Amino acid sequence: MSRKKKKKKGAGQSANFIISLITLSIIFVMVGYLIGNYAVKALQQQHRAAMQQAREPVRAPVVATSSPAAPSSSAPQAPRGQEQSASPQPQSQPPSPPAAPSTALYKVQVGAFSERANAERVVAQLKEAGYEAVIISGPPHRVQTGAFSSQENANRLAEELRQKGYEAIVVR
């Protein structure tokens, strides 16, 4: 009789173990599902922010043109390596080197794609048509062609590409 009790007790323990294992598996799957949803939402929000930033036009900083060599304020400058602790007037813009007009290039963007394969397909079509094209890594993967110092030249190329069926825009 003692053998039968041991067998029943062992069978009950293994059933409890299996039930515990299944329960833990279900809990881990649910936790993984919730973490996955959270990660996907965070990535989608980051992608939306990047897309919004890419859609906004690039604004050039306003630079005074009275005297390019003259300093912008009459306050004494701190020696190199030392920062001023307090400025007499708050600055409205962070200090940045002025952009030279000759270095600003206008490019013609033919498409922006979430998948690189689509961008590569458009690049192949453009090269087949005789245009040089590059992919600006993303996402979005932007297909661009041309680099012009004048916006008029870029507009001409964009119009030429539109006539050939491409959705072309001029970007800076």
The percentage helix is: 40-55%
Spatial strand sequence of the major β-sheet: 2-3-1-4
Global shape? rod-shaped
Structure annotation, total helices: 3
Can you identify the CATH class of the largest domain? Alpha Beta
According to CATH, the homologous superfamily of the largest domain is Sporulation related repeat
**Mean pLDDT across every amino acid position:** 76
CATH topology title of the largest domain: Alpha-Beta Plaits
Characteristics:
172 residues, alpha+beta, four-stranded antiparallel beta sheet
Structure characterization notes:
This protein has 172 residues and is an alpha+beta fold. The chain has 2 domains: 56 residues; 71 residues, Alpha-Beta Plaits (2-Layer Sandwich), CATH 3.30.70.1070. The protein is built from 3 helices and 4 strands. Strands 2-3-1-4 form a 4-stranded antiparallel β-sheet. The longest helix is centred in the first third of the chain and has 54 residues.
How are the elements arranged and paired?
Blueprint: H1 2-55, E1 106-113, H2 116-128, E2 133-136, E3 141-148, H3 151-163, E4 169-171
Antiparallel strand pairs: 1-3, 1-4, 2-3
Give the structure's gist in a few sentences.
The chain has 172 residues and is an alpha+beta fold. Helix content is 47%, strand content 13%.
